[in-house]
Specification:
16% strand, 4-stranded mixed sheet, 4-stranded parallel sheet
Length: 476
């Protein structure tokens, strides 16, 4: 059986640990149906999906390099990320590590143009939803700040929340002080982690500390009483744990350290897996380097022969412009969109029928539970009665989870105008990197690059074009 992990997340104050439990239950049932064995769980509580700075999420990404699992299962794709660029970047990173992302409640047919298209539009809608949601809650959060109340998110390690205000956790705050003292005293992050592990001290999620956790603590201004909200620092907002002079010394040491934890800059090569050498047929992959004068350059290189390298920005811009000309401006666009929606909806035509059957089974089980409870009230209590009640309760819970799972599969009836507007907005704006990733990911199936010409294949009806270098230069 292939190995899989589950990633679960909630962010809003209206959600709680029960939200995580429900996500995990549905993901486990999804895995069982596909004969996947769950080997680990990565969980982030009270953290937004609009950025990737989530401990559980980053640990999952780190572990994907170790070939521990082949699949990451999420309840819905927006649990993975609500940021369009992050979603593309981290899904590609997982794919590069041999890991595939699966949604337990959304079926997106990857082999169809419609699947690629719906996925791209879904990413866009998730990001727009986050922006609207942010506007709705910001007014209330601003008022909380004015009243000296916390505004959500995870509780900083070393504190606890009482009446929506931070108070120092006397036990945990000692460990925070110790981390600062050890670091300024010359201990490395590894030595601090080893000390914490030996003494059974774990982070707020109950897991062992990683390098990024230590450096995050050492940089966190909340420990000197400062809350940063909307880019504005609110001094003395929180009771301090660390002396300001010690924090300043640690900050100076961190800025001078060459061994501090760093994220590599995110460079997304949109044509990876789609671009092939016209001379030998081998894949062309992305590389970066430094020129003689120190300038950075990025390019695609053939993995097998000596074909000349292709500049990343020029080639990707060319493919995007060709796609806009051939697909987005095509007179057949409306019929292509309708065909995509039809294929997508075909995946879900039996869901309403299944939901009705599950609802009927839930009602039947509830009635059976009521009868057993009635018998217990009448004094008919035996071992078999208790066992039957427990079995019925478990059955009801299983059916309710199945109903949620199937109900979430119902498509939101992809709208022709929304999809067409997604296409057409590229006519009036210069595509950014996220747009390029979406256009290439949703519409382009294969690119063959020769030194003097190019072939581009699209997902739509095996449509493809060939163009010579002189014409190509006019599209760069």
């Amino acid at each position: 059986m292939d190995k899989a992990v589950i990633y679960a997340r909630y962010s809003s104050s209206s959600q709680n640990d029960q939200s995580i439990d429900t996500q995990i239950d549905i993901c486990k049932k999804f895995a069982k149906a596909r004969k996947l064995v769950i080997v680990d769980y990565y969980i982030d509580k009270g953290l937004t999906g609009t950025n990737a700075n989530r401990p559980g999420f980053q640990k999952m990404i780190e572990d994907s390099y170790l070939e521990k699992f082949k699949y990451v299962i999420v309840y819905k794709l927006d649990r993975f990320s609500r940021d369009e660029y992050d979603d593309i970047y981290y899904e590609k990173l997982l794919n590069d590590n041999g890991v595939k992302r699966l949604s337990a409640t959304e079926t997106i047919p990857e082999d169809y143009f419609s699947g690629k298209l719906i996925k791209a539009v879904t990413r866009l809608n998730n990001e727009q939803y986050s922006r609207v949601l942010s506007e709705r809650v910001n007014a209330g959060l601003d008022k909380n700040i004015e009243r000296g109340l916390m505004v959500g998110g995870s509780i900083t390690w070393g504190y606890k929340l009482v009446d929506k205000k931070y108070v120092v956790d006397d036990e945990i705050s000692k460990h925070v002080q110790m981390i600062f003292d050890m670091y300024i005293g010359g201990s490395t992050a590894k030595e601090i982690i080893d000390y914490l592990s030996r003494n059974g001290i774990y982070n707020s999620n109950g897991n062992k500390f990683q390098f990024q956790h230590i450096f995050k603590i050492l940089r966190n201004k909340r420990y000197i009483g400062t809350l940063t909200y909307k880019g504005i620092e609110h001094v003395n907002f929180i009771p301090p744990i660390i002396d300001k002079s010690l924090f300043a010394d640690v900050s100076k040491k961190l800025s001078n350290s060459r061994n501090q934890y760093r994220h590599k800059p995110r460079i997304n090569y949109s044509l990876t897996g789609k671009l092939f050498c016209g001379e030998c047929g081998s894949p062309m992959t992305g590389y970066s380097g430094t020129g003689r004068h120190g300038s950075k350059f990025r390019y695609y290189k053939c993995s097998s022969c000596h074909k000349k390298n292709e500049r990343k920005d020029i080639l990707e811009n060319t493919i995007v412009n060709l796609t806009i000309n051939e697909i987005i401006n095509s007179e057949h666009l409306d019929s292509w969109i309708d065909a995509a929606i039809k294929v997508y909806n075909e995946q879900f035509k039996n869901i309403d029928y299944l939901l009705k059957n599950i609802q009927a089974e839930i009602l039947k089980t509830k009635n059976e539970i009521a009868n057993v409870i009635k018998a217990i009230k009448l004094g008919i209590i035996t071992e078999s009665t208790k066992s039957e009640l427990e079995s019925l309760e478990n059955k009801k819970k299983s059916l309710e989870i199945e109903y949620l799972q199937k109900d979430a599969l119902k498509p939101n009836a992809p709208n022709h105008d929304i999809i067409k507007n997604w296409f057409k907005h590229f006519e009036t704006k210069s595509p950014n990197q996220s747009d390029k990733d979406n256009i290439i990911g949703a519409l382009v199936s294969k690119v063959i690059k020769y030194d003097n010409s190019i072939e581009v294949y699209f997902f739509i009806g095996n449509h493809h074009i060939e163009i010579d270098l002189p014409l190509l230069e006019g599209l760069e």
